[in-house]
Design brief:
Elements: H1 3-32, H2 36-45, H3 57-68, E1 74-79, E2 82-91, H4 99-113, E3 121-124, H5 127-137, H6 141-150, H7 161-164, H8 185-189, H9 204-222, H10 225-234, H11 236-246, H12 251-257, H13 265-282, H14 284-287, E4 299-303, E5 308-309, H15 310-317, H16 321-327, E6 337-338, E7 343-347, H17 353-359, E8 387-392, H18 399-406, H19 410-416, E9 430-435
Antiparallel strand pairs: 1-2, 1-3, 4-7, 5-6, 8-9
């Protein structure tokens, strides 16, 4: 190489270095003028799919303490507008305290601290409940997380039940929410089967699939995890109205500025509680070092292609009736026939070959023998009443697959839903499936 070419190469290299330094300086200068909130979310998103809006940090720390430090016997009095301010922690025992007692304490603390009584709120600790819940979670957590992974969602969403039910599979709220994910009947029917014979809200895997479908839909419509997760408490329509009225999709803006009779303390703090739950759930041994999680309860599933009697299904599994019902908590004691599409749950270490073979056999519900009548007219058979199942269409799911799952024809589903072309059936819509 000649000296001329060498000098030219050196000059080019120096020029490139100078350009790189200039671009870096320009980028740093630009970032310095970004809002602090945007910087915080941008920094956190690289390591965590769930951003922390600036100003929400004190609430997250408060809920971490409620979940892990304060006992159920302790009543924590705090400032709802400044969650870092805890006025007093009162030992009240296991008995519930009357509203009169709590209001009296609030008045006393408000006067002592020179604030309005609305700036004093009470909250019991739930340390024992959190520890018991995360201990139970070990049975199903790995498979629940896989449900979210398979749907392309963050597996940390599986810690939402820390807030909702503490992983109590039989949980039932006073307003009718059921199961580990606390679905109300109406919402549950949009994502799974909920009726008097089969209530999949009680099934840890089926209800997790429903929760994943809901959260996927909410994230797609609302555009952010803070809003989507808050909608689990407040509803998607409610969150959309709040964003439209305030003109901001920032959760802290909504907490501070939006006003509605139902937009109270619980929905405002739902996302902060969730973030605290994620931190605790992913670091269980750090917060509860003396407690071991339950061993995983591995489940295998067999999807029935046709209606199958419960007795036949049980005998093919080799389980006792009590064992079968324990592995299939969605079933009520009165169920006699398992519908097409139902996923039978079995222990993972048990051979599923007999029930797999059975699942391919058509089962007809035996009809009662007709009664003899004196009239010369032939007996009129009453048409079976159609049962309607609501099915949320998922990505990659075809109409033929849906029809096969429920034992219905494609044409019947289209007619029942007033749809003319199969191509109009897309992910995100809810179909009504008629079954006999």
């Amino acid at each position: 190489m000649s000296v001329a070419h060498s000098n030219a190469g050196m000059k080019k290299e120096v020029a490139m270095k100078q350009l790189s330094r200039w671009l870096l300086t320009l980028l740093i200068s630009h970032l310095a003028f970004l809002p602090a909130q945007a910087m915080a979310q941008r920094t956190l998103s690289a390591a965590n799919p769930f951003p922390v809006p600036a100003g929400l940090e004190p609430a997250i720390e408060f809920w971490k303490k409620i979940f892990t430090e304060y006992s159920f016997s302790q009543l924590v009095f705090f400032d709802p507008l400044d969650m870092s301010k805890i006025y007093e922690v009162v030992e009240v025992g296991e008995d519930s305290r009357s509203n009169q007692y709590i209001d009296s304490e609030r008045s006393r603390l408000a006067a002592a601290n020179g604030v309005d009584i609305e700036r004093v709120k009470a909250q019991r600790g739930v340390r024992e409940r959190t520890a018991d819940g995360l201990k139970r979670a070990g049975r199903y957590l790995a498979q629940m997380q896989q449900v979210f992974i398979d749907r392309g969602l963050p597996p940390e969403l599986s810690f939402l039940p820390v807030v909702e039910s503490s992983y109590d599979m039989s949980a039932r709220s006073f307003v009718g929410a059921v199961g580990v994910w606390q679905f109300m009947p109406a919402t549950g029917r949009s994502y799974m089967r909920v009726d008097r014979l089969i209530d999949e809200r009680r099934d840890p895997l089926e209800s997790t699939r429903a929760a994943a479908a809901y959260l996927d839909q909410a994230y797609g419509s609302l555009g952010s995890w803070p809003l989507a997760i808050t909608s689990y408490n407040y509803g998607q329509a409610g969150m959309a109205r709040a964003v439209a009225e305030i003109g901001s999709s920032n959760l802290v803006d909504l907490i501070q500025r939006y006003s509605h009779p139902y937009w109270g303390f619980a929905p405002k703090h739902f996302y902060a509680e969730f973030l605290a739950a994620v931190e605790i759930g992913t670091n269980f041994s750090q917060y509860f070092p003396s407690i071991e999680q339950d061993a995983p309860r591995k489940i295998q599933e067999v999807t029935l292609a046709s209606n199958t009697s419960v007795g036949t299904a049980i005998s093919s599994t080799g389980l006792s009736q009590d064992e079968f019902m324990e592995w299939n908590p969605a079933l009520s004691a009165g169920v006699r026939v398992l519908p097409a599409g139902y996923r039978v749950k079995l222990p993972a270490d048990r051979s599923a070959e007999p029930i797999v073979e059975l699942a391919q056999v058509n089962y007809q519900v035996p009809a009662a023998a007709p009664r003899r009548v004196a009239s010369a007219q032939p007996p009129q058979r009453q048409a079976p009443k159609a049962q309607v199942i609501h099915h949320l269409v998922q990505r990659g799911e075809t109409l033929i697959q849906i029809a096969q799952r429920y034992g219905a024809s494609v044409q019947r589903i289209l007619q029942f839903n007033g749809i003319r072309q199969p191509r109009l059936v897309r992910a995100g819509i809810t179909l009504r499936i008629p079954t006999a």
